[in-house]
Specification:
binds magnesium ion; 2 domains; binds aspartic acid; eight-stranded mixed beta sheet; alpha/beta; binds adenosine-5'-diphosphate; Carbamate kinase
Length: about 425
């Protein structure tokens, strides 16, 4: 008997039919003698619908109130799943984040989990119940409901698994594992049986939305075995087969010794680029530009400062597209005049494409192969950033899919 956490995403919970299938699958695991905690997302489209309602009323809704409503989708899901399990004769109980409690900081709409109180859940499990906990939501010190950022149910699930010292966290979704790239963009992308924790962290941080990055961080910090697998298979398929399907995030360093140099291609469509022109080249300038941006809680990603000419330089960086207007406002209002910059220009239609692989460490020439492939397609590279196991380029949004497809092919990632 093991304690196992199941997480079901929006598509997996997308209709009452699908929820009944989830109940059958969960019951099968419970019947096999396991203790099961389920962490579902809201039904697909629901979180967007709710946030859309708020935006119909205000362009910038109060984040606390946004969390109050955005968290309701998950509350519906847990209740429906408990009812579906009870309908097939299982004892099940659902909890909202605050009832557990899943405690977070107060950074509304992107809160971080601080602690999880596992006592109540453990008591229910020991009494033979299946416990269902809302994904995506928590509660801060003052009792306010918080949410963990879009895609945050992955993080709830892995954090719950870590707190309960579960044997494994199974992330059930609408694809049957982690692929060399998003199978919606490249139809012959290949499923990976295992992916190293480091690679998964890079892929998630570089835009592969199959797992929220914080869930991968939790998996790493607690060495929680985590597997991505399909919820769309027959819920009554043999448990052994299901338990070994999908993609396991591995903590072994050398599982890729025999494999390709590149593991996958990640991309993020929604980037924006800002350039501050004619900046005096003196100590402290990067801090004076980026300090106020960070104070506004805007995450900066790629950064370039050009060689200075006659004491002036240009400073370029990227931010998430959703924060572009806010970043431009901060620069225009509190930075430009202060540092004596010439002007500020931006482009909110850029995307980032990255090649990722631990194998890059021992192979040279990956960058040149990447740049050659893009040049053969006539794609201009605007910015480049590298780490030991990834190379990212910023390009015009309209070439993103072409870049992903041609790199996928150039690095031989397609399925046989
Ligand atoms: P859920 O609602 O279950 O959380 P998501 O939509 O958040 O599901 O994540 C699953 C989706 O992630 C897939 O449908 C797929 O389009 C996308 N995706 C992006 N990159 C990858 C990848 N490398 N491997 C698998 N899926 C990917
Ligand atoms: N329902 C939330 C969202 O749509 C959380 C999740 O699905 O993981 O972002
Ligand atoms: Mg998701």
């Amino acid at each position: 008997m093991a304690l196992i956490v199941h997480k079901y995403g929006g598509t997996s919970m997308g209709s009452t039919e699908r929820i009944k299938n989830v109940a059958k699958r969960v019951a099968k695991w419970h019947d096999a003698g396991h203790q099961i905690v389920v962490v579902p997302s809201a039904m697909s489209g629901e979180t967007n619908r709710i946030i859309g309602l708020a935006k119909e009323i205000s362009a910038q809704p109060d984040p606390r109130e946004l969390d109050m409503i955005a968290s309701t989708g998950e509350q519906v899901s847990v209740g429906l799943l408990a009812i579906a399990l009870q309908a097939i004769g299982k004892q099940a109980v659902s909890y909202a984040g605050w009832q557990v409690a899943i405690k977070t900081d107060s950074a509304h709409t992107k809160a971080r989990i601080a602690s999880i109180d596992e006592a109540k859940v453990k008591a229910d499990l020991d009494a033979g119940k299946i416990v269902i906990i809302t994904g995506f939501q928590g509660v801060d010190e003052l009792g306010n409901i918080t949410t963990l950022g879009r895609g945050g149910s992955d993080t709830s699930a892995v954090a719950v698994a870590a707190a309960l010292k579960a044997q494994e966290c199974l992330i059930y979704t609408d694809v049957d594992g982690v692929y060399t790239t998003d199978p919606r963009v490249v139809s012959d992308a290949r499923r990976l049986n295992t992916v190293t924790f480091e690679e998964m962290l890079e892929m998630a941080s570089l835009g592969s939305k199959v797992l929220q990055i914080r869930s991968v961080e939790f998996a790493g910090n607690y060495r929680m075995p985590t597997r991505v697998l399909s919820s769309l298979t027959d819920p009554l398929m043999p448990l052994e087969e299901e338990a070994n399907s999908g993609t396991l995030i591995s903590f072994e360093e050398d599982t890729h010794m025999e494999q390709a140099t590149i593991t996958g291609i990640a991309f993020n469509r929604d980037e924006a680029k800002i350039t501050v022109l004619g900046v005096p080249d003196r100590p402290g300038i990067a801090y004076q530009i980026l300090g106020p941006v960070a104070d506004a809680n805007i995450e900066v990603d790629m950064i370039i400062q050009n060689q200075s000419v006659e004491g002036k330089t240009d400073f370029t960086f990227t931010v998430p597209r959703g924060e572009y207007t806010k970043a431009m406002d901060v620069l225009e209002s509190s930075v430009k005049a202060h540092i004596g910059a010439g002007s500020i220009v931006g482009d909110s239609k850029v995307s980032k494409v990255s090649v990722v692989g631990v194998g890059m460490r021992s192979h040279v020439g990956i960058a040149s192969q990447m740049f050659r492939t893009l040049s053969e397609e006539g794609i201009n590279i605007q910015m480049i950033s590298t780490s030991e196991i990834k190379i990212s380029v910023l390009i015009d949004e309209k070439y993103m899919e072409l870049a992903v497809r041609s790199l996928h092919k150039a690095f031989g990632l397609e399925s046989a």
